[in-house]
Structure prediction request, 187 residues.
Amino acid sequence: MDFLLNHIEALIFCAHVPTKVADIKACLSEMFNADVPEDDIVDAIKRIEEKYSSDEYSFQVYKSGGGYQFLTKPAYQASIGIMLKQQSKKRLSTAAMETLSIIAYKQPVSKTEVENIRGVNCDYAVQKLLDKGLVEIRGKAETVGRPLLYGTSPKFMEYFGINDVTELPTPKDFTQEVNTIGESPEN
Prediction:
């Protein structure tokens, strides 16, 4: 039974929204190619809740929105709040993300080429990206005026969790429309 408990624990842990018992059952039934009784799932969830209710853990399983998810305990709210505030300062603006995207896909690219694609001046965005170490100067173009050429840095790879720019999504990855709430994928 601990085998089942471990799978349920992993499913709840990896989900970014509360996981319903029916979803867990469907997943496990497909994985094991056999019907998994709902009572066994509910029992395993209760054991998981008991396990993480101990003060030994900083998080526990909460039931919300008709499902289950791991959330940190209220006692750790202050430290998490500070970390989230610090991380939000590190977020990139829309202009910076657009500029970074163009640089990533077109590198090495001059600021003028980026501005022609975006249609607006991007001095500030490029400077912020340089300051954050996400882009770097790759040299000078062989064109009139010898403008600086920009490309992504190793920190860019780390920031986005990729190993090489070839891992960036290609335009074909964006052709399928994203399903919105209330719409079926067949529409």
In short: Strands lie at 59-64, 67-72, 109-110, 135-140, 148-152. Residues 38-52 form the longest helix (15 residues). The chain has eight helices and five strands. The chain has a mean pLDDT of 88.
